[in-house]
Structures are given as C-alpha cells and as structure tokens.
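Hi V.,

You were right to ask for the full record rather than a summary. Here it is.
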Amino acid sequence: MIQMIPLTTIWRCFQGVIPSIIATSDSHGNPNVTYASQVHLIDDGHVALSRQFFNKTSRNLDENPLACAEVHDPVTFQSYRLHLKFLRSEKSGPLFDVMAVRIQAIASVTGMSGVFRLIGADVFEVLRVEKVEGFLTSAPAEPDERMSMTGARSEIRGLQYISEQINRAGDLDSLLDIVLEALGSYFGFEHSMVLLADECTGRLVAMASRGYGTSGVGAEVEPGQGLIGTAASELRVIRLTGIEACLRYGRAVRRESGSATPEIPLPGLPDAQSALVIPLKLCERLIGVLAVEDRDATRFGEWHEAYLEIIGNQIALGIDRMADDGEETAPPRIPIAKPEPADEGRRRTLTYYVNDDCIFIDGEYLIRNVPGRILWKLMREHQRDGRREFTNRELRLDPGLGLPPIKDNLESRLILLRRRLSEKCPDVRIVPVGRGRFALEIDGAVEMVER
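Predicted structure:
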C-alpha cells in the first residue's frame, strides 16, 4: 500500500550520508540508473538534484520528465522512493548558490577545484513519496533526541544563553573561550574552533579551539581553502555530512609562493564524519569563522544550520566590539626600571628573521607577521631600556609595525601572541595590567639574534 509522507518528516534522508539513487528513462522506455551526488530538500513539494555530469540522465529528462529517486534515513536505514517530475534546471540564483558552495568546498578539500563543480540545480516536483515496505527486518531503534529538528530546549532559550555568555566576557581573549564552552555545554559540540580574519595577510588565523589535543593557535587558512576557507570566501554556512576522508581539513597548506616558513597544523578530527562551518560576519564584512565537527555523520541538521547562523551573528557582534575595546585616551607614564638579574641557569634564544618577520625560539618556530614584529619591538625596548609596561595606543602609533589604519585587530594579534608564547615559551609572558595596557614578564635570560 502506498503511504504518503511529508518530506520534512524524513529530513535526515537529504543529508547525503547514504548516497541516493536516481532512475530515469528515455522516450522509448530505456532505463538509466545512477547515483545522485546531492538531493536537496526545497519544501514538502519540491527537491533539487545536483547536475554535475549526468549526461545520460539529462538527455532522458529532456525526452521524459518523469523520474524516481530512492533516499535512505541514515539513523533508521529506512528507504523511501520519491516519484518526481522534472521542472527546470537553474544555473544561477539562491538555490544554485547553496548547492554549489557545498560541492565547491568538497572539491577544494579533495584537490578537484574546477573539475568537480555544479553545472545546474535540477528542480523536481514531488508527485508522491513511498515508504519501501519490508526494507527492514525489524523495527528501527528510536533516533536520539539530539538529532531532532528542535530538541528539548527552545530556540529563544538558546539565544538567551549564548548572549549571556558573550556579555559576561570582559575582553576578547575570554570571549573566544566562553563562546566555545557555551556551545559545548548547550549544544554538545565537543570539537570546535574560532578563526579570525587578518586584514594584513588576508588569511584566517586560528585563535581558540575546544576538544582537541593541541590548540593549533596561529594556524592559517587561505580564503577558498577547504571547508573553512570556502565558507569565508563565499560568506555562506557550509554543512557537510557523511563525507569521511574529504572532511580531513586538519592541516593548513603552505603558501603558494613556496615559502619554507613552518606552518602550524590546524586542529581537526582525522575521522570526522560531519562538519558545520559558520562565517561570522557583520553585513558583508567577514569577522571570522566558527567551525564544529563530529564523528557522528548525522550530528548536524537543517535546524543547526539556520539557528546557529543567527547565533553566529551574535558572536560576530561580540568579537567586533571586543576587538576595538580597551583603548586608553592617553598613554600613562611608562615606568623605566633596570632589568632584574637574569637566572643564568635558564637561557632562551629568540631569533628574528627580517625578510619574512618570523620569530623562532630555541630553533623552533613561534610566530610571524605583525605579532612577530610586535614581540621583537617589546623585547628590544625591554633589553635596551628595561621597559616592562606598554600600551595599545603606542603600538597603533608605531608605523614600523605595519598595522592597518582602520580595523587593525590589535587585540586579536596580542591574544595570538600571548597564546603562542604560553604554548612555546612560557618564560616570556604578555600580561594585561589595565585598560589598553600590558606588561612584559621575562623569566631567565633571553638572547636576541636578528638575521
């Protein structure tokens, strides 16, 4: 018996975890069956299939608009047949863009950019939906409540909770950690990271992570590179499920110029099965990216995608506000003191490479670009004059640091420098001591070498 089923009640079937099958026939009734890369749910009466190659399928649809697609629920493994009627193929527009960005992201990860691409979004009317009876030998287990479209907690409560956590943050440094902790405690996102846009280099820089063995602070991602870079360049949410190896974006690649500068590995699960990447933006200005991933192929649904985009806007507002906070109207008096006697039993060598603004500590890569120039400035002045306190204002006024005149992101650069020092050289610390002020603390002796 045919059982009519609303498409929105079987939404998990359209996540791409289990490949879907599309069957068509030509005007003479000769059939063709192939796998569909993407079956996109539009509404209860329409779906769209990605047209990438589909030469035979496309010819059949031109002759005979009727088709049948089989989709599968990745949780219950129940199969459904969708009886379709081809309406049109869209080559541009919102629907095309949403489907294209997913394929573009996968192509970037797998090195198939320019080859693996969307040609058209084929829109079908759904004439009826059949549940395939006898597909399962026993009743499927009840799905986990966290996989439902709404869950037990309300959307308003979630917004309230995240907003409260953002407002609790006293500075940008604590805000980044609080946001990831809040997403973990409320949504159960155990593996997440935040990357901020660097206007000087044009790259995204990892600033905070949760749930990984190594923090990866300082790792860089080029726009258009992998899932994170594609979400940033397109300013679109990317949700991928059941993608196995093609989701392994856990490393930042070297610059195309062939620079030998060491890269910091980006955190990532080697066996991740799903990912949700959310651009943090204000209007059309990119602030950064929030990326979460999971070993569960059905972890993220449409509800997460739409709802977390709203939360992402809240996070972007908080980051943008904190990035400009903490500036003093005038610099305080800077105390000058003689350096304390160094502990000769503990020595470090700080090497600065002028050509690419890289700093190494005891032969190990530490940091580069603007944060590297900032550290070298602080260390030189401390060594020359014994200075221990500095202000954000004087850094902004120093033309040698190369900070952009507008939106210099100085706070985020200082956070990156503090966290890299904490990981690689805890003997040197940058400690906030007041609004727009920080102190340089050094334990032991540091030899400075410029090359």
